Amino acid sequence: MQALESGRDSHVLNTRVKGKGNRWEHHEYQWVNGVPLTEGADALRVNWCQQTLTNDAGEILYRNSWITDWAIDADNVAGLASSGRARWKIENENNNVLKNHGYHLEHNFGHGKEHLASLLATMNLLAFGLHTLLELTDENYRLIRNKVGARRRFFQHLEALTTYLYFESWERLMDFMMRGLEIGPYAPKS
Predict the structure, then answer these.
(1) Distance from C-alpha of 130 to C-alpha of 136, rounded to nearest angstrom
(2) Looking at the chain, which runs of residues are DSSP E strands?
(3) Is the N or C terminus of the chain more exposed, i.e. has fewer CB atoms within 10 Å?
(4) pLDDT digits (tens, 9 = 90+) for 86-123
(5) Are strands 11-18 and 24-36 parallel, antiparallel or unpaired?
(6) Is the domain of 7 the same as that of 80?
(7) Lowest mean pLDDT: which of 23-27, 35-39, 83-87, 97-101?
(8) In a domain? residue 126
């Protein structure tokens, strides 16, 4: 908003679109190209845009702004704002999983000396990546996860099993779990 107040060449585009619940929303896009990111003559120049969504009563439903190195104009401002919202949503959902669904990202950090916090964060991110890869590539893992439910509960099952039993491989562990849950090749024949 500071860019608009400084008297720069700002632009506005207003549109009306069907939103959630098939209700009309008013989308206002404001943008300025070549705005200094900080004070000073040598400041990095960026392109700034803002999206404001309002309902018919004029209530603000959503407002956010972004900076980019892409030149902004009336043809691309809505797409850039949509991309910014999608990226924000993805980041929030990923952070929610890392924080609240079995990875305890915020609970492990700030302890220890030197680089422990970085190491633990890296290990959490690697675990999250590996679990995501398993979701995409391992059919047995998907079957078990769908049957067991929440990732946290799946981890509890793994912990209990591997505390008392030895499995030669991941495949043997998955096979044991499918047999116990009566899924996959062990599903009762109808």
Answers:
(1) 10
(2) 11-18, 24-36, 45-54, 60-68
(3) C
(4) 887 777 777 777 677 766 666 545 555 666 777 777 88
(5) antiparallel
(6) yes
(7) 97-101
(8) no
Number of alpha carbons in the 13 Å side-chain half-sphere of residue 144 = 25
| Rounded distance between C-alpha atoms, residue 98 and residue 108, angstroms | 12
Q: Which domain holds residue 156?
A: 138-190
| Residue recorded with tokens 């190209």 | 33
In a domain, 102, yes or no: no
Write out the H or E segment, with its range, that includes residue 179: helix 170-181
Which residue's structure tokens are 């981890």? 155
If you compute the radius of gyration of the chain from its CA atoms, what whole number of angstroms results? 25
> Whole-angstrom Cα distance, residue 20 to residue 88?
19
Q: How many residues does the chain have?
A: 190
Cα separation of 64 and 66, whole Å?
7
69 vs 113: which has the higher pLDDT:
69
Q: What is the arrangement of strands in the sheet containing 60-68, beginning at the earlier edge strand?
A: 11-18, 24-36, 45-54, 60-68
**What is the mean pLDDT of the segment spanning 42-56?**
93
Place of tokens 């590539």: 137
Residue at 10 is within a domain: yes
Question: Do 77 and 143 sit in the same domain of this protein?
Answer: no
Q: How many domains does the chain have?
A: 2
